[in-house]
Design goal:
The protein is elongated. α1 runs antiparallel to α10, α2 runs antiparallel to α3 and α7 crosses α8. It starts with a helix and ends with a helix. With 255 residues, the protein is an alpha/beta fold. The strands form 2 sheets. It has a 5-stranded parallel beta sheet with strand order 5-4-1-6-7, with helices on both faces. A two-stranded antiparallel ribbon has the order 2-3. The longest helix has 23 residues. 49% of the residues lie in helices and 13% in strands. The chain folds into 2 domains: 84 residues, no CATH class; 143 residues, HUPs (Rossmann fold).
Length: 255
């Protein structure tokens, strides 16, 4: 039930959904005063949340900063890679399709090639409400094979549907073989706060390695300050989802 409700809430709170709802309501309602209020409310929200400068500042505050490879002074037994980076193309199962977030895989591969991690544990089934058959961990495993990672150095967990379930499953797999201090958690900068909190809650506090950043260096160009951008709206939707997700997890006792 929590899984279903969290998915529904994530859609309802999206800025674009709210803007559309306000504009549709303004077109339907007959009262001129209410119609005007709804229309301008939708317009203001649209302009604020599509502003690249405002969105970038918000994202920079939320994201967990990256760690340069040179600062990693130890060799980890496992890199724990959280999925959520592949997309499913019906009818095409002879290759792996990546969404944004492929850094979770490629940067982990670099850690492996540099000898900073010995093995890679890929965690993630399907985060969709309906089962699509193919599991994300299977797809990432396939990609890692193609990239030259040895079969015996890949472990996968394919049943978790969210970050909490990943933390529970990963601990169960690793607790008999290693310690949290020997593990490195890899996920996107915007997702690391929630992911790290889940693993700590389960008694598996790992070091972290953030990848896949939404933010960019601060600048004051005209287009950044004044031109509405759909990418800014998308970034807001991602971090709002993460904020609400973290609060929901804390209420549920997952983080």
């Amino acid at each position: 039930m929590f899984f279903l409700l969290s998915k529904i809430l994530a859609y309802v709170i999206m800025p674009f959904v709210i803007v559309c709802a306000l504009l549709v309501a303004s077109a339907i309602i007959k009262n001129p005063r209410k119609k005007k209020r709804l229309f301008f409310s939708g317009l203001i929200i649209l302009l604020v949340f599509s502003n690249d400068f405002i969105a970038n500042e918000a994202v920079k505050l939320w994201e967990v900063s990256f760690t340069p490879y040179a600062q990693i002074k130890k060799e980890y037994a496992y890199a724990i890679v959280l999925t959520g980076v592949t997309k499913h193309e019906p009818g095409f199962h002879d290759r792996v399709f990546f969404n944004r977030g492929a850094d979770r895989v490629t940067h982990t591969l670099q850690l492996y090639k540099m000898g900073k991690v010995k093995k890679i544990l890929v965690s993630g089934g399907s985060g969709r409400l309906t089962d699509i058959g193919r599991k994300e961990a299977d797809e990432v495993e396939e990609a890692l094979w193609l990239m030259g990672v040895k079969t015996e150095d890949i472990i996968k967990e394919t049943e978790s549907r969210n970050t909490h379930e990943s933390a529970v499953a990963v601990k169960k797999i690793l607790e008999k073989n290693t310690r949290p201090s020997e593990c490195l958690l890899v996920t996107s900068g915007y997702h690391m706060r929630r992911a790290s909190a889940c693993f700590k809650k389960e008694g598996w506090p790992t070091d972290t390695f953030t990848v896949d950043f939404l933010s960019h260096p601060r600048n004051f160009d005209f287009d950044t300050l004044f031109i509405p951008k759909i990418e800014a709206m998308g970034n807001w939707q991602i971090i709002i989802k993460e904020m609400v997700g973290l609060v929901s997890y804390k209420i549920a006792g997952y983080a």
